[in-house]
């Protein structure tokens, strides 16, 4: 039987305010949107939920604000069976929020107000150290302070724990600060912000991944939306195609990829196979509206996987 993975996510929790519209207003203009959705989000929380729905034991380290959203976010983790012992409410600040705009083709634009996420500090990693030492994988993103990300990466390295960094939203960083990291997983625009190299086609993606690897990270996975992913290490570079899906909202697809990839890998699947499965998990998440609420649970996912991999 597959191993039951233990995944820790040190990261953000937001409330997503998603508006669907045929187009978006120009400066000074008011127009009507078509639909609105309020949901739990945040890249860290989404990745934790994806990992949990894929069957892992998940531990969240996060900060929420002293507003209505803070306790609701903690309750959402608990309801999903995610350990929220290290999710604390901070007085006097707002929770993270994300107004999101989705266009008819499913593409999204996201504005994040970090709020309490910005107060997750290296000392909070230390406070969770006893727990973090017991996990198979630590997952990080860039919606918390960079100093906390660097600190957690070095904690993972010291303790021999697999570590994944999703540099979203992208900041220009010194990639060598992440030397030795197991997996660096940006999408095209994040990779472009970090390397200064445009990613317009598979060849660009390959060159960009090589530049990131030359900074010292051990593995790079460039997620390419409907074009799948590029899996690169110092030994090989390989394109892993996506599965066809009818996409209506791509918000959170990268998070679905990362949370599920962490689980598939910790279950002992070979890297390429874990990426292939995560490609499908991410693709399926775009067939529903919102982030966490569009993620498949494991039995639904396994049925879809089996159906798409029937030998003919
Ligand atoms: O990746 C999608 C997420 O980005 C949303 O849930 C939003 O909160 C922002 O963090």
Features:
312 residues; alpha/beta; UDP-N-acetylmuramoyl-L-alanine:D-glutamate ligase; six-stranded parallel beta sheet; four-stranded mixed beta sheet; 13 strands; 23% strand; binds alpha-D-ribofuranose
Number of domains: 1
Bound molecules: alpha-D-ribofuranose
Could you give me the name of the CATH homologous superfamily? Ribokinase
Supply the helix-strand structural class.
Answer: alpha/beta
What this model shows, in words?
By secondary structure, this protein is of the alpha/beta class. It is built from ten helices and 13 strands. It has a single domain, classed as UDP-N-acetylmuramoyl-L-alanine:D-glutamate ligase, CATH 3.40.1190.20. It has helices at residues 43-53, 69-79, 122-127, 129-132, 146-158, 188-195, 202-214, 253-266, 271-285, 298-308, and strands at residues 6-10, 14-20, 35-41, 57-65, 83-90, 96-102, 108-110, 137-141, 162-166, 183-184, 219-223, 229-233, 237-240. The strands form three sheets. Strands 5-4-1-8-9-10 form a six-stranded parallel beta sheet, with helices on both faces. A four-stranded mixed beta sheet has the order 3-2-6-7. It has a three-stranded antiparallel beta sheet with strand order 11-12-13. Bound molecules: alpha-D-ribofuranose (RIB). Residues 12, 14, 16, 41-43, 46, 98, 110, 112, 143, 251-252, 254-255, 291 line the site of alpha-D-ribofuranose (RIB).
């Amino acid at each position: 039987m597959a191993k039951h993975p233990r995944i820790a996510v040190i990261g953000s929790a937001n409330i997503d305010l998603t508006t669907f519209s045929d187009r978006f207003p120009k400066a000074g203009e008011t127009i009507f949107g078509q639909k609105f959705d309020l949901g739990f989000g945040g890249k860290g929380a989404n990745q934790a939920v994806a990992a949990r729905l894929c069957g892992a034991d998940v531990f969240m380290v996060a900060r929420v604000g002293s507003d209505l959203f803070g306790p609701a976010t903690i309750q959402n983790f608990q309801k999903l069976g995610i350990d929220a012992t290290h999710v604390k409410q901070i007085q006097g600040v707002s929770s993270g929020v994300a107004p999101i705009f989705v266009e008819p083709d499913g593409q999204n634009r996201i504005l994040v107000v970090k709020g309490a996420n910005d107060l997750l500090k290296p000392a909070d990693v230390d406070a969770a150290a006893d727990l973090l030492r017991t996990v198979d994988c630590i997952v990080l993103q860039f919606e918390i302070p960079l100093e906390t990300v660097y600190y957690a990466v070095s904690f993972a390295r010291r303790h021999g724990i697999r570590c994944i960094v999703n540099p979203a939203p992208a900041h220009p960083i010194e990639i060598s600060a992440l030397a030795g990291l197991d997996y660096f997983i940006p999408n095209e625009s994040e990779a472009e912000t970090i390397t200064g190299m445009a990613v317009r086609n598979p060849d660009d993606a390959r060159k960009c991944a090589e530049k990131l690897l030359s900074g010292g990270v051990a593995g790079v996975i460039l997620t390419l939306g409907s074009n799948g992913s590029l899996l690169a290490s110092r030994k090989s570079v390989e394109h892993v195609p996506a599965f066809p899906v009818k996409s209506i909202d791509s918000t959170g697809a990268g998070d679905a990829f990362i949370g599920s990839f962490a689980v598939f890998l910790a279950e002992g699947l070979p890297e390429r196979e874990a990426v292939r499965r995560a490609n499908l998990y991410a693709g399926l998440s775009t067939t529903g509206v919102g982030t966490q609420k569009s993620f498949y649970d494991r039995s639904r996912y396994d049925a879809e996987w089996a159906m798409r991999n029937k030998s003919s």
